[in-house]
Every structure is written in structure tokens, then in C-alpha cells.
Specification:
nine-stranded mixed beta sheet, PHP C-terminal domain protein, 5'-3' DNA exonuclease activity, 5'-3' RNA exonuclease activity, 2 domains, alpha/beta, DNA polymerase, domain 1, 9 strands, PHP_dom, TIM Barrel, 45% helix, single chain
Length: 288
Amino acid sequence: MKQFVDLHMHSSYSDGIHKPEILVAMAAEKNLKAIALADHDAVEGIDEALEAGERLGVEVIPAVELSVEFKKHHDVHLLGYYIDYNDAVFLEKLADFRESRDHRGQAIIANINAKLEREKKGSMSYEEADALAEGAFGRPHIARVLVDKGFAHDLQDAFERYLVPCNVPKRYFPMEEALAEIRRLRGISVLAHPTSITEDRNTLKAIIKELAAMGLEGIEVYNNMCNDDDMSFLERQAIDHGLVMTGGSDFHGIEAGIEMGVGRGHLAVPYSSAEALKRLHEEKRSGA
């Protein structure tokens, strides 16, 4: 009987390498009961994932992962589950972010070409990378071109050698705006991989407390960036603030050693996490 879920993964519509239907097929093969497609600032793959889920017997939760800033902390990731992903205002905001992401991609490629020129290796174009993007343009699309042209051995090598040193800062949603938008869409807001914000537990404890007071509804307790002790700490924070506990592999298909469903091998997210999200969603729909 299927008992486990993966509530955090990415498709080729953002910075993953697999199409949504392929992700669902992989989930079915791994006997996962439910998954959530949470592309970065993009929702175009959700309908495809839902259709594949119906066909293959995998429950698919529509989601998004927003790039957020909170005070001095940049690149905080906020998940929104069961959002109204067809909302026109939300789609317009994502389109605006996509334009910003495209400009960032062009700037990164300019930096990479300068590095390639110094190395006397050749060049790549924005058009080559953009042709690989089905939704929001992301750095993995650039990495794939670098590999295809022989400038890097694999995707990880492309990131280490070019994407990281040639990076350009992202644009972010302010945390208050992101929480309000997910709430407006009747979604459930969940803080992704909290220890990526800071490993200082006193600071993280204070952040989670403040975000809970602002309306945060859950935290991703079970994730790749945590050891067992970290997860116990996050469980305590969730209990103390009445937050839903979720988890997922943050699977993109490019990270060495990370597999859907189990992450680096130690994840086992129970279906009860998906059920808790579903209960909150139904309460919001009923106006409770």
C-alpha cells in the first residue's frame, strides 16, 4: 500500500530537467501516493501534471515556490500549496518575474561568455538556452547548453565552473507580499528547507515565530538540507506554533545523489503531511 509522498519537486517549466508527466510517471514507479509540483515562480506545468496523475494514479497537489526576501535574508523560499494557479493577477505577477528572470539569464550568459573568452573556448547564446525553457527560464537551461557544447562535463560541473562564479542576483518577492498573495489565492504557505536561511537555531527559531505571526501556515520539516537532529528541531517549532509539517526531496533531476521520494536516501514523508494540507485547503474553500 502506498504510504509516502514527495511534496517538493521541479519540472522543466522552471529549473528541473524532466517534463511534469515524466515526474508523475517516476512517482508512480516509486509507488508514491502523492506529489506536489512546485516550480520556481511558474505554474505552467500543473495542468500537465494533474492530467498525468489522473492517468497514473498519483495524487498531484498544485503548488509554486516563490523566491522571497525577509529582512536581511535573501533567497528565502516560500511554497504555496493548493493555490488558484489560474488566477489572472497572480499570472501577471509571475510573468513580470519571468521577464526579470530572462534579463538575469542574459546577464549571466554575458558573464559566462567573458569567462569562456578568457579560457579561449568559444561562446554560447541566450537563444540556445532559452530554446530549452518550457516555462520560466532558469540556470539549468544555461548549464545544459554548456554541457552540450562541451564546455562542462556534466550539469554539476557546469554550475561549479560557470554558473556559480558568473551568477547575477535574483529579484525577490517581499515576504509580507508573498504570504498575502498565497493567502489571497486560498493556498497554504509553507517555509521551504528552513535551515537554508540560517543554521543558527536561535535566529531561525525567532524567524519562524515571526513568520507564524505574519500568517505562515507550515514548515518543510523533512528535507535534504537537514540531518535527523535538524528535523527534530523543526518538528518542535511546528508543534510550538501550530504549523503543518511537510517534506520533499526538492528534486530537479540534476543534483548528484538526490532521488525523488527519498532525497539523499533518508527521507520518508508520510501521506499524513498531504492530508494536513488538504484539510486546510478544504477549510479555506468552505470559508471556515
